[in-house]
Amino acid sequence: SQKIEQNSEALNIQEGKTATLTCNYTNYSPAYLQWYRQDPGRGPVFLLLIRENEKEKRKERLKVTFDTTLKQSLFHITASQPADSATYLCAPIEAGDKIIFGKGTRLHILP
Amino acid sequence: DTAVSQTPKYLVTQMGNDKSIKCEQNLGHDTMYWYKQDSKKFLKIMFSYNNKELIINETVPNRFSPKSPDKAHLNLHINSLELGDSAVYFCASSQGPSGAAYEQYFGPGTRLTVT
Questions:
Q1: How far is the alpha carbon of A100 from chain B, nearest alpha carbon, in Å?
Q2: Spatial CB neighbours of A4, under 8 Å, sequence gap ≥ 6
Q3: Which A residues 10-49 touch B at CB under 8 Å?
Q4: What gap in Å lies between CA B42 and CA B63, rounded to an integer?
Q5: What are residue B103's phi and psi, to 5 degrees?
Q6: Separation of alpha carbons B67 and A31, rounded Å
Q7: If you measure CA to CA, which chain A residue comes closest to B100?
């Protein structure tokens, strides 16, 4: 069955450093992969989408990579700030299929 | 302007009751969804409608019945509520169907507590 694994524990990063979150998937051939941010008590908010033929995507301080050979996506936040503290969800999507979310990684940026 | 709105935000009810959650989106999107997020924060799709037509129906007890009166609205009715139904329910919408490169916009969630 399809399986998505994200950093299982919370991630603590010092302010100003780069935070790197991992998303691994198995039994999947996603055509797209999305990343969302979720704050406590709120719905997820879309951040970035990367396609299978793209190695890397950037948006301001965010960078996503997508390695279909390793079956992995990495999500980077550079120059991290306390306001970046949230849960980050990855969602690989097979073409024509429903979106399935990973359990998410809780990120804490320490001042 | 709120893009995806849900009512109510909190719902506390007793086992066996029937309740409804309403969702509206003003984005002009064709596709709407219901998700359940349990206590372990796992977000799982329940239903998806595209242009008022049901296209995704996950393994959900038939006590849950979605209804889409028009493209902008997707309501969720739950019969005979059980303790295990306690969760946060999110409505979402996207411009096109799931399985394509469309981002989803989520509502604020409805926290359902069954006692």
A1: 7
A2: A23, A24, A25, A28, A90, A91, A92, A100, A101, A102, A103
A3: 31-32, 34, 36, 41-46, 49
A4: 21
A5: -75, 150
A6: 30
A7: A95
Residues present in chain A in total: 111
pLDDT in tens, chain A (111 residues): 778 999 877 999 999 999 999 999 999 899 999 999 999 999 999 999 999 999 899 999 999 999 999 999 999 999 999 999 999 999 999 888 888 899 999 999 999
B104/A contact by beta carbon, under 8 A: yes
Question: How do strand A72-77 and strand A19-26 relate by DSSP bridges?
Answer: antiparallel
Which chain A residues are Cβ-neighbours of B2 within 8 angstroms? none
| Identity of the residue numbered A105 | T
The answer to whether the Cβ–Cβ distance between B107 and A43 falls below 8 Å is yes
Name the DSSP letter for residue A71.
T
